[in-house]
Amino acid sequence: MAEEIDYQPLELLAELKAKAEAEPVPAELPECLPINAIRRVPELFQPRGEREDEHHLGELVRAIGIHGMLDPVEVIQIGQDAYLVDGHHRVTAYGMAKVAEPVPVVYFMGTIEEAVLKAGQANNKAKLPMTTRERMDYAWRLVLMDKYSKRQIVEAAGTSDRQVANMRQAMGKLGKGATSFTHWRAAQRAADDKDGHQMTPEQRADWVEQRAGELADKLARTFSNKLSENIEITARALERYFGRRLGEIAGEMGFYPRDCDEEDDF
User: Fold this and answer.
1) Can you give the pLDDT at residue 32?
2) Disulfide-capable partner of 204 in 16, 50, 148, 199 (CB 3.0 to 4.6 Å)?
3) Distances (CA, A) of 42 to 47, 85, 181
4) Distance in angstroms between the alpha carbons of the first and the last residue of the chain
5) Are residues 135 and 106 both part of a single domain?
């Protein structure tokens, strides 16, 4: 955007950059830090915001009880303070397990803007990957910050070029009001309203991808890997569920059953 906008992540980014310029970094950085010395700014460095997965936290607390320390969390040193870039669940789990001693850390040596992107990339590769909706919301946040290229947003959030392009178009349509939307789906609906609910082919393709991803996430939460491990049972279940429309599903996926009456060409 050409003009400055009021948007909390941008304001926090400016504050941290000012802090980095005003405060010197300690000559030596410790390999371990007390958890209460690791500062958090989820609006910048936690793509999920402040939401944490309770089941995953329970597993981490159990692992701490068995093994002690977990893998180092990643922090960025800004002035005299270390800010958490990756490892929010681990730090919360340390607190739940009442760990008193300092925990292992590694330092991110890039810029603060690069650390924001690194947080998204780390979540996409973690054992607890972001859901489709979380990835879309994170990409929308990066678009609103107006600091990153399309390629950077795609790589950090795990979205497509088309989805980022649609987000930028929506931001343009919504103007200053764009920053009032925390979630991409709400922003998308508001932008569509300005168009009289008329989707372009690209917007519809984007919407289909989002909805498909959300449904896939729901299937994963409900069935874990049971569907992929029991192909025969899954196939029978799909046949019962879709009935006569199963052929349409196969066609949409690019699989077209051959007519049994056709003669093979030899």
Assistant:
1) 97
2) 199
3) 7, 9, 17
4) 62
5) no
40: left (phi over 0), alpha (psi -120 to 50) or beta: beta
Q: Residue 42: give its domain's CATH number.
A: 3.90.1530.10
Q: Given the structure tokens 């068995």, which residue do they identify?
A: 66
Confidence bin at 189 (pLDDT 50/70/90): confident
Instruction: Give pLDDT tens digits for 48-89.
Output: 777 777 878 888 898 899 888 999 999 999 999 999 999 999
> 149 near 114, Cβ under 8 Å?
no
Q: Are 216 and 43 in contact (CB under 8 A)?
A: no
Q: Indicate whether 104 and 9 sit together in one domain.
A: yes
113 and 202 together in one domain: no
Q: 30: which residues sit within 8 A by CB, 6+ positions away?
A: 102, 105
Residue 52 lies in a domain: yes
| Residue 155 pLDDT > 80 | yes
